[in-house]
């Protein structure tokens, strides 16, 4: 009886699965039939248009690839989709005329490798409100100046799959100057925004998730990376080989999935401003290497494994940064002549005799552990072991050469407004602790010790 | 019996000696997940630009561009290098640095813009130059005289002008900073 009942159940289950399967296959079958039968080739529409025309595409599916070689405005109002599945055509949309505007279009680029969904080889091109799914690159600019790339969504077809290093870049600029890249959302690709040899580019208010590098800048003097948000990337912002760059107001959080993750990496960066950034929960908050004469100011460095790491960096001004709840606040090797003043180091026990809010004891960064670990990475096993702490304390070689903050702040500035909550939290813990102690003392006093 | 144990001891001794003497250096495979350039920290892609060296202590360093390996040699010297390898541009086979041929041209695009690519023999390097119409073939010893210039800008003239302007700008900003002015968050 029981056996038969369960068998019955099984049959019902099987039936249900089968019917579900049927429905799914029927649905997907009809969907694919739709796309192929109703897709309208877009190129003839473009060919028929006059220079300067505005084309509004009716909702529906269009077939790529297309080549735009005259000044046109093409708008899809968010409901037109362009497919590019023909394997012969590398690029879905090729723009070769100045002043082309493309907006509100969904683009699906089925070709991979170096193939981009949109490739721009002309100046003053506007790409706005596009939704791009790609197996290759998203938007590629080559020798294309003054482009405007605003409010686009670019992502890989399948969120999981190939390693991020094997995918294409979201927005990729090469030798294209003075572009404006704003409010884009890029995810699951290689580098979100890759800039090479592209001067005076503005990267502002972009959201970058699950990428290799969120923003990757190489040789882009005079550009700015501002107010971007990056999470779960290998590195939030990789800034390399540049001078006079502004990196400000960015928030890079949770870059900690890879053994080489960091919030912001500065390599060979000169005379640049790194101000008002938030780096939180990364493996390394800010990693600075072979960089000189930069200003790092008002950055919030929260809950990272290593807050900030300097290597071979000289002549940087490093002021009013706040270091809170990092496992290792700072590491510095071979970094001389950095002007490091008035930072807040939460684990530092300062002493303020004069009452001016500045500790009279200086904060020095002991390079011992870092040097040891660079020599042999396996010594990380001894992290904070009593022996390591003891040896670090013993090591005072060249102490005057260490990176030192001679006037660390006793308390956080009012400038760091959002940190208020954190210190409040610490206060309540303190109160709770005192209460607990009080009650235990009372208990012991009145109840006496436990007698067996 | 005694003879045997003597033989055995001899054998073991020889084995140990052999193990000591033959310190072999082998190029390691690139793991894109975790390998980063020892100089510039960028991910080392498993492509023809990747290079690597192993020191005599058996430490392996990988680089994303041959220029970065050169930078490492400048910093650490070449005395302690066991073997250094570059890759053939065409089939990605590892080649010893000293036996490889190189092509330099400032227009060649490499990860760190040094513009030097490597080949397993002179013939394939020459074939590349012929095919591309640009570049000059160099040997490993020629590279020691190479200036290792990074091509960071296509229009040098323009950049210099731009930089002068930047400097003015910067000094203004610096003054602003010293006057204790706060940037808004």
Automatic annotation (TrEMBL), chain B:
Keywords: Signal. This is Copper chaperone NosL. Residues 1-18 form the signal peptide. The keyword Calcium does not apply. The keyword Heme does not apply. Residues 163-185 are annotated as: Disordered. It holds the Pfam family NosL. Residues 164-185 have a biased composition (Basic and acidic residues).
């Amino acid at each position: 009886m029981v056996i038969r009942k369960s068998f019955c159940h099984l049959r019902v289950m099987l039936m249900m699965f089968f019917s579900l399967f049927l429905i799914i296959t029927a649905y997907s079958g009809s969907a694919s039939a739709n796309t192929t039968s109703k897709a309208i080739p877009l190129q003839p529409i473009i060919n028929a248009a006059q220079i300067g025309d505005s084309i509004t595409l009716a909702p529906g599916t269009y077939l790529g690839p297309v080549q735009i070689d005259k000044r046109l405005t093409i708008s899809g109002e968010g409901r037109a989709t362009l497919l590019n599945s023909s394997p012969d055509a590398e690029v879905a949309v090729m723009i070769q005329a100045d002043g082309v505007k493309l907006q509100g279009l969904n683009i699906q680029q089925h070709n991979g490798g170096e193939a981009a969904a949109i490739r721009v080889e002309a100046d003053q091109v506007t790409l706005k409100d596009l939704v791009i799914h790609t197996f290759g690159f998203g938007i590629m600019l080559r020798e294309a100046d003054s482009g405007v790339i605003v409010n686009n969504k670019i992502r890989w077809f399948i969120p999981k799959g190939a390693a991020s290093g094997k995918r294409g870049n979201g927005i990729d600029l090469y030798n294209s100057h003075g572009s404006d890249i704003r409010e884009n959302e890029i995810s699951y690709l290689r580098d979100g925004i890759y800039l090479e040899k592209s001067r005076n580019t503005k990267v502002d208010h972009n959201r970058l998730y699950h990428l290799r590098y969120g923003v990757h800048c190489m040789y882009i003097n005079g550009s700015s990376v501002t107010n971007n948000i990056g999470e779960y990337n290998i590195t939030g912002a990789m800034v390399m080989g540049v001078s006079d760059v502004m990196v400000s107001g960015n928030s890079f959080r949770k870059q900690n999935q890879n053994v080489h993750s960091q919030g912001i990496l500065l390599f060979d960066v000169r005379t640049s401003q790194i101000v008002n950034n938030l780096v939180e929960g990364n493996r390394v908050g800010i990693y600075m290497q072979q960089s000189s004469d930069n200003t790092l100011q008002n950055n919030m460095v929260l809950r990272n494994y290593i807050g900030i790491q300097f290597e071979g960096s000289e002549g940087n001004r490093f002021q009013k940064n706040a270091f809170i709840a990092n496992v290792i606040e700072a590491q510095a090797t071979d970094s001389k002549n950095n002007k490091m003043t008035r930072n807040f180091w939460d684990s530092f026990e300062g002493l303020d005799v004069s009452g001016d809010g500045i500790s009279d004891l200086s904060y020095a960064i002991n390079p011992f552990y870092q040097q040891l670990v660079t020599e042999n990475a396996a010594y990380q096993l001894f992290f904070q072991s009593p022996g390591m702490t003891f040896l670090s304390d013993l090591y005072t070689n060249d102490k005057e050469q260490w990176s030192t903050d001679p006037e660390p702040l006793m308390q956080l500035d009012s400038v760091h407004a959002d940190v208020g909550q954190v210190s409040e939290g610490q206060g309540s813990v303190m109160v709770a602790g005192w209460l607990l102690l009080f009650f235990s003392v009372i208990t012991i006093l009145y109840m006496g010790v436990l007698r067996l | 019996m005694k003879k045997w144990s003597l033989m055995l001891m001899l054998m073991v001794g020889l084995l140990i000696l052999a193990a000591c003497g033959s310190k072999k250096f082998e190029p390691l495979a690139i793991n894109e997940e975790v390998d980063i350039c020892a100089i510039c920290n960028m991910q080392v892609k498993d492509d023809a630009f990747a290079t690597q060296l192993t020191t005599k202590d058996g430490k392996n360093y990988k680089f994303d561009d041959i220029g970065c390996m050169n930078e490492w040699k400048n910093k650490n010297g070449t005395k302690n290098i066991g073997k250094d390898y570059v890759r053939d541009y065409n089939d990605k086979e590892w080649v010893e640095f000293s036996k490889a041929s190189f092509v330099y041209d400032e227009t060649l695009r490499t990860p760190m813009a040094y513009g030097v690519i490597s080949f397993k023999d002179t013939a394939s390097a020459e074939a590349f130059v012929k095919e591309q119409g640009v570049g000059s073939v160099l040997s490993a010893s020629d590279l020691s005289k190479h200036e290792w210039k990074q091509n960071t800008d296509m229009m040098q003239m323009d950049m210099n002008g731009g930089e002068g302007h930047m400097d003015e700008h910067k000094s203004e900003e610096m003054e602003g900073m010293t006057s204790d002015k706060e940037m808004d968050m």
